[in-house]
Amino acid sequence: MTDFTVTPYDVRGTIDYEKLLEQFGADRLTDEQINRFPNPVHPLLRRRQFYAHRDIDRFCDAIEAKTPHSIVTGRGPSGAMHLGHIIPLYFAKYVQEQTNARVYIPFSDDEKFLVKDRTLETIGEQTRDNLEELLAVGFDPERTRIIIDTHDADVIYPLAVAFGDAITQSTFNGTYGEPENIGHSFYPAVQTTHLLLPQLIHGVHPTLVPIGIDQDPHVRVSRDVASKRRFPVEKPAALLSKFLPRLDGPGKMSASGDAHATITLNDDRESIATKIHTHAVTGGQASKAAHRKHGGDPTVDVPFGLLQAMFEPDDERLAQIERDYRDGKLLSGELKSIAIDAINEFLTAHQKRKTQLGPLETELARYRLTDEERTTARQRVGHNELKSMN
Ligand code: TYM
Fold first, then answer.
1. How far apart, in whole angstroms, are the C-alpha atoms of residue 212 and residue 108?
2. Separation of 214 CA from ligand 1 center, angstroms?
């Protein structure tokens, strides 16, 4: 028995990330695997924020051989996006810039309606808001597709039906727990569709799914469907990240959690500073004198953890900050200020790109699936197109 829970719908307790790997049956990333990513390796990988994987070698082979490879990573639009959500997105953008990977980004508005207490109207508003955040990341429209489940139902639904009969209710219950309703029971067939979609459009090829480890159960289900070999696909690989914590404790930073413990992508400098100064857990000592004497503990310090995850990309600067903190030269308040500056710099650039976007419909049009892509995907799972509706 463990005293923590991690599923796509419930993250609780203090997570033991090693035990979680045993529980899920995923593997720790090796140095060798990390170094197979293009140089310079992204901080999220070399600092082990992404710490585990499933079957990543074939994806790395494809990077090296310059053969087709895709990334799928998505968002369930249930509220304002926060720093945790951008981990897979900025990582995907980075890989796309380095290797010309195709990137598919599904939006599970259906899932969030089914599992959260929100109206369809609210989910629709969140979808528009979150799409703008996504577009601000700056993916290459030629190589990127954005899919919204209820808007792209012409392709998502026939595929999800094709996969739905390969997933039993007992698989659902064993993987996710009790469903909220029958719509929820069907949803894993939809996320399986997301993960297999690049292969159904472009033919069999390695696909990588970079996600927070809470999403791994969906990868397991999709790999199980792929292994039944009824469709022309190989199992998707996964890159699994630890969570960015809540500012005030070890739990996961979460869109539905308390606003004071979460930095959202639209926070300005002042609110970032207020949240961090007032709420962030530190590894500092109780008094300035004790801190100077004994030093701080960066391993439990949330501002340091944020810098380490990705917001201070320079390894030497990060190492210097760590030394100074351990030695007591750097106080917790000063470390907080460094983190505030770094996060603010990152978010200011993100927010600037957001203000430069045109109208949402126009921007999005460049990323929608083409008619040909939709037809190909439907045909690959065995749907015949209607020649004429008359
Ligand atoms: P969602 O919207 O809950 O989360 C989007 C992504 O952000 C990750 N994440 C975090 N990572 C680090 N620290 C955190 N505190 C944190 N909080 C969230 C999640 O693990 C996820 O990778 N069902 C999905 C959306 C989805 C999807 C997909 C994701 C639909 N299709 C295909 C990947 C691939 C969801 O609700 O994610």
1. 16
2. 8
